[in-house]
């Protein structure tokens, strides 16, 4: 039987822990057929990003058309989009899809390397977020996109409202950078789902955000509602973080096959 097909539009991580590589591993683990539109290639390892090269907009468009026109997609996930031009290119492409879209508005890596030009933020706000079925910003990305700075769990609601003002149907604000339990808030402006997971004493968390967003897309492709998809994805990423392992001499990846 043909499995659900899920497309990631994102950057390549040569170290295999985040980006396209994390997305495809997650999709395999969750039983869907993963496909990719590569937006940028990074030279990357456990120590950080040593180089990044954006692909031409034509190459992004051609990959997308190849996949969608023949194979078809049941869900899409976007990750690293690098520049304003690529954000606009991807938004133009996704405007024509009926599939649910998970937007991970990737800004800066855990090592502090920029994965999105500052000049692209406005296009993310005005072109990409309105197309999202679910947007999955972390607290740094919320601050970059909305100016709202969250320092406590109580402020997650204000952050969510500020993101929803840009038009996604749902937002999952990831509070994992706060102290204590990893608490996220999923809301569409009326329903609220608080997701809580224990914090593990494990620094090997490279690829967490990519993995979560891809897991949500995989579950949506299988027919889950947004709250069901997010709850299952949160369980999957919590397991992957608990099993994160050392690799190289820096920060290792989460374990997709835990
Ligand atoms: N590299 C690429 C290509 C990514 O898409 C991402 C995150 O989305 C990262 C690196 C950053 O991963 P992390 O912040 O989990 O280290």
From TrEMBL:
<keyword id="KW-0784">Thiamine biosynthesis</keyword>
<comment type="function">
    <text>Catalyzes the phosphorylation of hydroxymethylpyrimidine phosphate (HMP-P) to HMP-PP, and of HMP to HMP-P.</text>
</comment>
<dbReference type="InterPro" id="IPR013749">
    <property type="entry name" value="PM/HMP-P_kinase-1"/>
</dbReference>
<dbReference type="InterPro" id="IPR029056">
    <property type="entry name" value="Ribokinase-like"/>
</dbReference>
<dbReference type="GO" id="GO:0008972">
    <property type="term" value="F:phosphomethylpyrimidine kinase activity"/>
</dbReference>
<protein>
    <submittedName>
        <fullName>Bifunctional hydroxymethylpyrimidine kinase/phosphomethylpyrimidine kinase</fullName>
        <ecNumber>2.7.1.49</ecNumber>
        <ecNumber>2.7.4.7</ecNumber>
    </submittedName>
</protein>
<dbReference type="GO" id="GO:0008902">
    <property type="term" value="F:hydroxymethylpyrimidine kinase activity"/>
</dbReference>
<keyword id="KW-0808">Transferase</keyword>
<dbReference type="Pfam" id="PF08543">
    <property type="entry name" value="Phos_pyr_kin"/>
</dbReference>
<dbReference type="InterPro" id="IPR004399">
    <property type="entry name" value="HMP/HMP-P_kinase_dom"/>
</dbReference>
<feature type="domain" description="Pyridoxamine kinase/Phosphomethylpyrimidine kinase">
    <location>
        <begin position="13"/>
        <end position="255"/>
    </location>
</feature>
<keyword id="KW-0418">Kinase</keyword>
<comment type="pathway">
    <text>Cofactor biosynthesis; thiamine diphosphate biosynthesis; 4-amino-2-methyl-5-diphosphomethylpyrimidine from 5-amino-1-(5-phospho-D-ribosyl)imidazole: step 3/3.</text>
</comment>
């Amino acid at each position: 039987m043909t499995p659900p097909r899920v497309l990631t539009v994102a950057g390549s991580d040569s170290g295999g822990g985040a980006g396209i590589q994390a997305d495809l591993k997650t999709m395999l683990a969750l039983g869907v057929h993963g496909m990719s539109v590569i937006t940028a290639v990074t030279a990357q390892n456990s120590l950080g990003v040593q180089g990044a090269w954006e692909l031409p907009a034509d190459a992004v468009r051609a990959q997308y058309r190849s996949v969608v026109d023949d194979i078809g997609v049941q869900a899409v996930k976007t990750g690293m989009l690098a520049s304003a031009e690529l954000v606009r290119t991807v938004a133009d492409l996704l405007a024509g899809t009926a599939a649910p879209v998970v937007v991970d508005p990737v800004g800066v890596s855990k090592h502090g390397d920029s994965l999105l030009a500052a000049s692209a933020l406005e296009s993310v706000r005005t072109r990409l977020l309105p197309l999202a079925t679910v947007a999955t910003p972390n607290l740094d990305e919320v601050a970059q996109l909305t100016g709202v700075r969250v320092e406590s769990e109580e402020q997650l609601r204000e952050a969510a409202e500020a993101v929803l003002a840009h038009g996604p149907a749902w937002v999952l604000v990831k509070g994992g950078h706060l102290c204590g339990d990893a608490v996220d808030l999923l809301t569409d402006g009326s329903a609220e789902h608080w997701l809580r997971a224990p914090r593990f004493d494990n620094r090997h968390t490279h690829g967490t955000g990519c993995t979560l967003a891809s897991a949500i897309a995989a579950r949506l492709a299988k027919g889950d509602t947004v709250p069901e998809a997010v709850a299952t994805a949160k369980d999957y990423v919590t397991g992957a973080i608990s099993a994160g392992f050392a690799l190289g001499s820096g920060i290792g990846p989460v374990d997709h096959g835990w």
